[in-house]
């Protein structure tokens, strides 16, 4: 029996969405974030990291969305619909690259941005100008240019491919969904410069399994 522990507005939406794509039989428990925007302590009882997603599989608690996606595809994607086979070299390499790129390269920048936004929000009035100044400094020295380069890479990939791993939708699209939504938060991405990326986002959101996942676990908004 699969049991997904899903935190609202979080990476665990990926797993919810994939379970729906796979038409899998699973149990779902949803958690709210606390006032500090963290996961509730109760998640630590399921896995010591206390982060979402956590997928319980026969007494084992699996973590790391990339690993959970690979696990589910290995065990439940009987028709090999969501991952290119290794003999399709170009698609397999794209799939593997974007699967890793999502958590290893883009998410750290976006999490850094989120943390500094929260620091400004939580700062007492008297030190707000200072915390805003630090956020601006971090944004211009460490985040903006790197993120632009990464978004340009994504846009380039989708100029030439319908999905991140080529012609077919795959687990790599599910893994990439969260950073793209996070990067599009606030003022939103430039609709001309990132037209292909934003069209890809729409295509993801139009999938039937995506819509069911939203009704069960809520839309992801940053
Ligand atoms: N690399 C991990 C990251 C897991 C993670 O940090 N999850 C966040 C949600 S997006 C979380 O649980 N945050 C709550 C907290 O830190 O208390 C993955 O991809 O699963």
What does this structure look like?
This protein is an alpha+beta fold and 222 residues long. The protein folds into two domains: 2-82 and 213-217, Glutaredoxin (3-Layer(aba) Sandwich), CATH 3.40.30; 89-207, Glutathione S-transferase Yfyf (Class Pi), Chain A, domain 2 (Up-down Bundle). 58% of the residues lie in helices and 9% in strands. It is built from eight helices and four strands; from the N terminus they run βαβαββαααααα. It has helices at residues 12-21, 43-46, 65-76, 89-122, 128-160, 171-183, 195-206, 208-217, and strands at 2-7, 26-31, 54-57, 60-63. Strands 2-1-3-4 form a four-stranded mixed β-sheet, covered by helices on one side. β1, α1 and β2 (26-31) form a beta-alpha-beta unit. α4 runs antiparallel to α5. It is globular, with a radius of gyration of 18 Å. The two termini are 31 Å apart. The model has no long low-confidence stretch (mean pLDDT 96). Glutathione binds at residues 7, 10-11, 38-39, 51-53, 64-65, 103. Residues 7, 10-11, 38-39, 51-53, 64-65, 103 line the site of glutathione (GSH).
Structural class: alpha+beta
CATH topology of the largest domain, which one?
Glutathione S-transferase Yfyf (Class Pi), Chain A, domain 2
Biggest sheet, spatial arrangement of strands: 2-1-3-4
Could you tell me which ligands this complex binds, including any ions or cofactors? glutathione
How many domains in all? 2
The helix content, as a percent range, equals: 55-70%
Q: Let me know the largest β-sheet.
A: 4 strands, mixed
**Strands, count:** 4
CATH first level of the largest domain: Mainly Alpha
Unreliable stretches, pLDDT < 50, 5 or more residues?
none
């Amino acid at each position: 029996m699969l049991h997904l522990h899903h935190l609202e507005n979080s990476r665990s939406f990926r797993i919810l969405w994939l379970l729906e794509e796979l038409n899998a039989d699973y149990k779902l428990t949803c958690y709210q974030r606390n006032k500090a925007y963290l996961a509730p302590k109760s998640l630590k009882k399921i896995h010591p990291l206390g982060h979402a997603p956590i997928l319980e599989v026969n007494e084992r608690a699996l973590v790391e969305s990339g690993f959970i996606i690979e696990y589910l595809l290995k065990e439940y994607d009987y028709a090999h619909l969501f991952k290119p086979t290794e003999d399709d070299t170009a698609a397999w390499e794209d799939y593997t690259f974007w699967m890793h790129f999502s958590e290893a390269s883009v998410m750290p920048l976006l999490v850094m941005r989120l943390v500094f936004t929260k620091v400004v929000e939580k700062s007492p009035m008297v030190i707000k100008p200072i915390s805003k100044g630090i956020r601006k400094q971090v944004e211009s020295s460490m985040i903006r240019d790197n993120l632009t380069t990464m978004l340009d890479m994504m846009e380039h990939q989708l100029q030439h491919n319908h999905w991140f791993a080529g012609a077919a939708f795959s687990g790599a699209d599910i893994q990439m969904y969260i950073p793209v939504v996070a990067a599009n938060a606030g003022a939103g991405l430039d609709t001309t410069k990132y037209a292909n990326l934003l069209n890809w986002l729409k295509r993801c959101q139009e999938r039937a399994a995506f819509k069911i996942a939203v009704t069960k676990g809520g839309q992801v908004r940053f």
